[in-house]
Amino acid sequence: MDGPAVLELRNLEAAYGAIRALHGLSMTLGPGEVVALLGPNGAGKTTTLRVISGLLRPVRGQVLYRGQEITGRPPAAIARLGIIQCPEGRQIFKNLTVRENLILGSYRLRDPVRERRNLERALSLFPMLKERLNYPAGLLSGGQQQMLAIARALMADPEVLLLDEPSLGLAPRVVEEVFEALAQLKAQGLTMLIVEQNAEKALELADRAYVLEAGRLVLADAADRLRENPDLIRIYLGR
Amino acid sequence: MQALGSPEFWIQQLINALGLGSQYALMAVGLAMVFGVMRLINFAHGTVMMASAYIGLLLLQQGVPFPFVALGAIAGAAALGVLMERIAYRPVRGAPDVVLLLNSFAVAVLLENVAILLFSPRSRPFPMPEVLTRVFHPGGNLFLPSIHLWALGGALLALGGLGLFVTRTRLGLAMRAAAENPTAAQLLGIEIGKVTVLAFAIGSAMAGLAVLFWTAHVGTINPGMGFEPVLKAFVACVIGGFGTIPGAVLGGYLLGALEIALQGLLPSGVVGYRDALVYGILILILLVRPGGVLGYLEAERV
């Protein structure tokens, strides 16, 4: 890995009330890297993203962005640094139009020129959004909403894109489309941390992967080696 | 008085309904904006109107020209809204919704009693300039009180401006986004605290504008005057669909039309029960459309 990590987690411990969700998680994300965070339900994947984005304050441990500690900062401040999360379940603004959703993606930039440029770029990545710019976003299908959610995150010119379960609840054909778009973003050098149930698709995309189980790191390796790893296959792909 | 059912009668009813509806719409929109960002039915909204009326009266007594009295009352309302958010609501953010609701009652009772201490509980005349109280006779037996024109014009300008703000500006969009999904909004860099203050400021300013028209109608002000407006604003929000700006505006005009229609059509012996009938109709509307006319209530989402 060249240069300092874009994102580094040191010994993160997190809890919801009395229930421990993370037990000392450490990981790094290098510039331009795509890292997958895998694990069964309840392993702590979403919790990890919530801690990075400031939605959950960790009990112990640190989050560093380019070497600077950002642990416990409010979510809006973390987003303004360019750490943009595309949350689970899409969370688009259903009563707002597709265009309004996209424009809000650029909220942190305060720059109409970059906003316009990003809008063009997002629409060329997801052309079907173009014909639906003035629709209320709630009228889009599930797959279209997922694409809108990714496009909205891209409108922010993210330094790091955190993706939580981008394939959740989507038809297989739509999953292909979404991962096709993510592969294009990877080719453009975007740094991504992706949480996925669909380990197969995630490992195809990622450079490296971490595997979580019950809030602990159980495996960390290059994605192509993990695809051959029998432990991983037992956990996920052995169905 | 025009003959019941004559064209003149209907035109008169329309004029009255638009005048009254404009006031209700302005009152309701502030309640809706605050509900949007905080999930709070701010019962102190009416008290802000009362306080704003007293600010206006004080300015008037100092000999300030009326346009500045109006601006002062509106600005005072906005400032009070912001202050209220800082003191009574922000410190308990994250607490159960009922805490916010109780705090809003506390603010209402507190402000009302401060007003009683400062100004005594009795009603005071609020002399309005002739330009607001004049009544035109455009022909036939029609009455066109200029206050209806001012209310309609003021509402169109203020609500139109608000509409542009929430659809065309970065902050306005952020406010709607935060109202719909605060978590997703924060993940884009939107500060909930900032848009909340903004919602209080704008909503309270709208209430400050509305109270000018309300006071011009009634002619006097008193410390308890905030109760009826906040109730009307609440009903307007419920009719139109709670928490949305278009719902509040529509609900305001529907409520105005309903009250005027009942007033005009009911036999004189029953007119006294107008409000009871209005609330009865409200219950009927809610039975048919629990989320209001433009409602987005969860129960309605399929």
Question: What does this molecule look like?
Answer:
The complex is a heterodimer of chains A (239) and B (302). With 239 residues, chain A is an alpha/beta fold. Chain A contains 9 helices and 10 strands. Chain A has helices at residues 45-52, 75-80, 98-105, 112-125, 142-154, 172-187, 199-205, 223-228, 230-237, and strands at 7-16, 19-29, 34-38, 60-65, 68-69, 83-86, 160-164, 191-196, 208-213, 216-222. Chain B is mainly alpha-helical and 302 residues long. Chain B has a single domain (7-121, 142-300), classed as ABC transporter involved in vitamin B12 uptake, BtuC, CATH 1.10.3470. Chain B contains 12 helices and 4 strands; from the N terminus they run H-H-H-H-E-H-E-E-H-H-H-H-E-H-H-H. Chain B has helices at residues 7-38, 45-61, 66-89, 97-119, 130-133, 146-168, 170-180, 182-186, 192-218, 227-240, 245-265, 274-288, and strands at residues 124-125, 135-136, 144-145, 220-221. The longest helix of chain B is centred in the N-terminal third of the chain and has 32 residues, at 7-38. The relative contact order of chain B is 0.19. The A-B interface holds A 53, 55, 74-76, 79-80, 84-85, 87, 91-96, 100, 103-105, 107-108, 110, 152, 156 and B 167, 170, 173-174, 176-177, 180-181, 183-192, 244, 296.
Structure characteristics:
heterodimer, A: 239 residues, alpha/beta, Rossmann fold, 36% helix, globular, B: 302 residues, mainly alpha, two-stranded antiparallel ribbon, disordered C terminus
